[in-house]
Amino acid sequence: MGTVGRVRLTRLAVALVTALPLVTATASASRSPERPAIALTDVLPAVAEANPAPGDGFRLTSGTVITASGAALPVAGQLAEALRPGTGFPLPVVADGGARAIALVLEPGHPDEGYRLDIGPAGVALRATGPAGLFAGVQTLRQLLPPEIESTSPQRRRWVLPGGTIMDRPRYAYRGAMLDLARHFHEPAEIRRYIDQLGRFKINHLHLHLSDDQGWRIRIDSWPRLTEVGGAPGTGVGGDGGGFLTKDDYRQLVRYAADRFVTIVPEIDMPGHVNAAQVAYPELTCDGVAPRPRTDMRVGYSSLCVSADVTYRFAEDVIRELAEMTPGPYLHIGGDEAMSTPHGSYLTFQKRVLPLVRKYGKIPYGWHEIAQSPSAAGAVIQFWGRERSSPSVATAVAAGARVVLSPANRSYLDMKYDMLTPGGLAWAGYIEVRTAYDWDPARLLSDVPESAVLGVEAPLWSETLRDSTDIDFLAFPRLVAIAELGWSPRSAHDWSSFRARLGAYGPRWIRDGVGFHRSPQINWS
Questions:
Q1: How far apart are CA 147 and CA 153, in angstroms?
Q2: Among residues 356, 412, 368, 407, which one has the least CA distance to residue 386?
Q3: How far from 338 is each of 184, 334, 342, 350, 457, CA to CA, in Å?
Q4: 20 to 30 Å CA-CA from 44: which of 77, 285, 369, 479?
């Protein structure tokens, strides 16, 4: 058995052994008709404002209905589907239900993605300006009911929502996660499963890293060998990651994500990280000779030929085809670790390629190295460094760029939790849950004002990943820490509160089959 196989078995064994006490506790709790009441503030991520009204909760019964109309109907349907299995109640979605209703209402006056949730004995009213706000409110409402509410068989218990009012809104517009498909390909079903979990924590962007030295994972019709060669069996780190997304696969993922108010952000990395493309098309090298395929983890050795016209024909074709099937506003062109591209050539490349993204109606997005280029004005810059200042990013911000923060030593989900973690890497350090949580996006870069911070993102690189078990173990619970930094107000940032709320969420992950890391920093329920 290879090293990867041993790592996966070790991780599975750890997950099974550590999960047993939690499974036992959960099963015991489900036999009891009562459990300690859930409070309005027991939510991940933390809500902006909560005004409890003890004793004024709303009880779901077999006569409860969900009311909605127009653009609110799809979200109402999702809520009904989530609550029916555990309750056994029909919970019909109707236009007007009178009393005993959970009403989803669209009305003006609420912040973008914000909502107001009023819970009283006679009914529940969830109000927002748009469907995205209703969806965010539904995620909160689901957490205000016990974990068994979404089990696969009805429970005999009282389902009571705590009384009071929540007024909630996001701190930052962009709250993202990244999944690397290039170093190891993840099937559409695995990506959909990840999207489902992202939505639970009000994460609204999924960045897909679709190309790298080890593989090319998205079909481009004008350059078909990219996937025929770069997505073939034997690609990926360790040669164990063949596969790619067809255009239909990609469009279906975009629609699936949009139904959960998650925007897909596609990334094609260039001018570095292009070995897989050059294996497929040797004309993308300066000498016209195909490099050998790479399945190792090294970086920085590949570069497009900046002086060749074919490079820009290639870049434009890829950008055009990606833009055509991506309704979201962003298109990520990478730009990191281009150590084999001379600085002048790098600037020349960005001067020609960043405008191509705008030409096809998208906002250019790239890793923070693109900030070196004057053409990055107006772009989104993803900062992944460990420094506390960045003059080039500050210069780009002064020219109109916005920043998404992904500090590697805080938000990289592929980093190990500690030295004993099976799988993962450690080049940016060990990242336990508190390390992921204890930083403020507004103060990360001393020379970048908070007004320039678009949001935060937690990347998950796949050098050591193979399946959803690996994704779960490295992403959760740390991804929730990043989600709270992106959604909740600075005033709500409190480790003691977060660890308590996170510990109480454990039974929900067990119910969903999410093999999360049982961090010793958390008292799990």
A1: 12
A2: 407
A3: 21, 10, 8, 12, 22
A4: 77
CB atoms near residue 255 (< 10 Å)? 11
DSSP-assigned letters across all residues of 137-202: HHHHHHHTS-GGGGSSS---S-EEEPPEEEEE--SSSEEEEEEE-SSS---HHHHHHHHHHHHHTT
Q: Each residue of 4-52: pLDDT tens digit? A: 443 444 444 444 334 333 333 333 333 334 445 799 999 999 999 999 9
Tokens for 319, please give them.
């950008």
In this predicted structure, what is the pLDDT of residue 158? 85
Strand pairing category for 58-60 and 159-161: antiparallel
Buried/exposed 31-52: b ≥16 CB within 10 Å, e otherwise? eeeeeeebebbbbbbbbbebeb
Burial (CB count within 10 angstroms: exposed 0-12, middle 13-18, buried 19+), residue 510: buried
Supply the pLDDT for residue 1.
38
Q: State the average pLDDT over residues 109-130.
A: 97
- For 4-60, give the DSSP string: HHHHHHHHHHHHHHHHHHHHHHHHHHHHSS--PPPPTT--SSPPSEEEE-TT--EEE
- 466-471: long-range contacts at Cβ-Cβ below 8 A with a sequence spacing of 24 or more? 466/4, 466/8, 466/184, 466/240, 467/8, 467/186, 467/190, 468/186, 468/190, 468/193, 468/194, 469/8, 469/11, 469/12, 469/15, 469/515, 470/8, 470/11, 470/423, 471/179, 471/186, 471/190, 471/194
Token reading at 142: 């689901």
Question: Is 359 within 8 Å of 345 (Cβ atoms)?
Answer: no
Which sequence positions are flagged as catalytic? 337
CB-based contact 451:409 (threshold 8 Å)? no
Q: DSSP letter at 373?
A: S
458, 413 Cβ separation under 8 angstroms: yes
- pLDDT value for 170: 98
d(CA 486, CA 173): 8
